[in-house]
Amino acid sequence: MADHPTSPHYPIDETHDPSLESWVESANDPGTDFPIQNLPLCRFAPPGEWGLSDHLGVRIGDHVLDLSDVAYTVAIHSDSGGPAEAEIYEGENESQLLEEWSGPLGRRIRKRVQELLGTSIDAETRKKLESHLHDASECEFAPPATIHDYTDFYASLYHATSVGSMFRPDNPLLPNYKHIPIGYHGRASSVVASGTDIRRPVGQQAPAEDGGAPSFGPCKLFDYELEMGFVVGRGNELGETIDIADAEKHMLGLCLVNDWSARDLQKWEYQPLGPFLAKSFATTVSPYIVTMEALAPFRTAAFTRDAGDPSPLPYLTSEANSSAGGFDITLEVYLASEQMRTKGMDPLKISSGNFRDMYWTLAQMLTHHSSNGCNMQPGDLLASGTVSGKDKSSRGCLLELTWNGDAFASPPKLVPGTDRTPITLPTGEERKFLADGDEVIIKGFCEREGFRRIGFGECRGIVTPARTV
What we know:
This protein has helices at 71-76, 83-86, 94-101, 104-117, 123-130, 157-167, 263-269, 319-324, 338-342, 362-370, 398-401; strands at 41-45, 55-60, 63-66, 133-135, 140-141, 150-153, 183-185, 191-193, 198-199, 202-205, 215-218, 222-223, 226-232, 251-258, 261-262, 283-285, 290-291, 299-300, 326-327, 330-336, 348-354, 381-383, 423-424, 430-431, 439-446, 454-464. By secondary structure, the protein is an alpha+beta fold. Strand 25 and strand 26 (454-464) form a beta hairpin. The longest helix has 14 residues, at 104-117.
């Protein structure tokens, strides 16, 4: 236990004590994602205010505590204590809250909220808090922060090798891959909360024959991508950079991400400038930011590079990042067709992987993103790219899962839409790519002996038919 990797910025402390329990009984269920040791942040509308309000909250068991309503209770009893601190819980001060939470104030608030929700709180305070505790099933959730900018990376070596092998079997990885975290600037306006329906996109697709004309219509090769994302808490000024040693101090926490992808549109458009309309139509995020403090017990070493791999350049290297830059997060993908839901069938688990398999760490992604002086802002979302492992069962998208080649043993070149082994659903339906009515559900959780299991909730969306073209 003593030699388990830990971040210098987010130590394991008394807030991670597995014996802590809450007077919110559902938080004490061993299977819950949201015990008192987690306390993720969220943005929500309470019952009766759907579409009308945007409150800041903390998830606890099956409920949400409204931080906006109990701000003074939290602030007055914190170390700094006072109305000025309480004001940052107001919705219009979200950026300030995100920035302040990524520091000592965040740790104080975490301890105070844990105290308020703990079993030792006095009866009078508990009664006051109960009126500001809402059943999560009756609330409407927004993305966990107001997303100002969105960047998506390509940080899984296994995914990059697998996909590269399909299109470039003799040269799957481009020369820069092991030197820099590859990413592209996504579309923040189309980042949506879990549960939002996703309309099948339309667009240009490659000519059926060389020299022919492209076609325009609904995407035929619709896919999901299993990803993790992190929300920036503290930004940097334009022209300044974020040092690798300080990168984690700029992170508020992690969430689940589904970067929906139109593979046929992507194949036609991605050269020479990379993804565009194949990605920009929708990205789904889970409602909760699991804070860096909560994740402290679940750190792991960065990905172990092969002996022949190049070492990252000095600006992407630190001892702390090497020893504890990774996260041990189990990630699962489930699929439920419309027919399955109609028949009351449970979703089918189609893959399971782990976030520790990423070639590049979150700190390296953030440091590289700012290395040219790009200014990050509180609320910016950075996603990891598809999380895939070495085994077929851990591949993070249908593009990989239904391909009948071995991604790591000179596989045959992919012909889009063919040479694929479909997934068979309990109804007998088969899937190579997503059909209308399919629901994709992503889950994530952390487990380690001696600590409470914590989770990220769900990131889900149902595919609806394309608009008429």
